[in-house]
User: Which sequence fits this backbone?
């Protein structure tokens, strides 16, 4: 399986500085600032990209789980919200909310709910969010 790489650069002080996050494979750039991250201003944030990763992973995983259960999903659409706050004295993603819409012929609501809830623990990004070990390799340039 391929490894995936992304990068980020921050220029300046915390509140007056600006940064850019970049996807390694597409080269897409996501500008961010203190204002966009902490105050809801224009621009992106690491938490927004985390939510995007979870939404994409969950949609694929749910489609796979539905197929394994014998259904033929037409569409799975997921919106993820990363809830970022300073309630514990440190900024944290306190929770992630998923809103899922599925077009799955022949499934009843109870079965859809069962599979959708089970996918919460099957999605690789969701599993990574449950317990993440962080390794740091730092050098001065």
Assistant:
């Amino acid at each position: 399986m391929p490894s995936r790489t992304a990068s980020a650069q921050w220029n300046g002080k915390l509140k007056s500085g600006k940064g850019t996050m970049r996807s390694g494979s597409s080269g897409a750039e996501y500008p961010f600032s203190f204002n966009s991250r902490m105050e809801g201003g224009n621009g992106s944030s690491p938490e927004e990209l985390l939510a995007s990763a979870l939404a994409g992973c969950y949609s694929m995983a749910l489609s796979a789980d539905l197929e394994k259960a014998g259904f033929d999903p037409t569409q799975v659409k997921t919106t993820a919200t990363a809830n970022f706050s300073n309630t514990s004295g440190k900024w944290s993603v306190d929770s992630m909310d998923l809103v899922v819409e599925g077009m799955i012929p022949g499934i009843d609501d109870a079965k859809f709910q069962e599979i959708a809830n089970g996918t919460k623990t099957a999605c690789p990004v969701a599993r990574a969010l449950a317990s993440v070990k962080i390794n740091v390799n730092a050098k001065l340039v």
Remarks:
- The chain has two domains: 1-44, 45-131.
- Helices lie at 34-38, 46-68, 109-119, 124-130.
- Strands lie at 6-11, 18-23, 29-33, 75-85, 92-103.
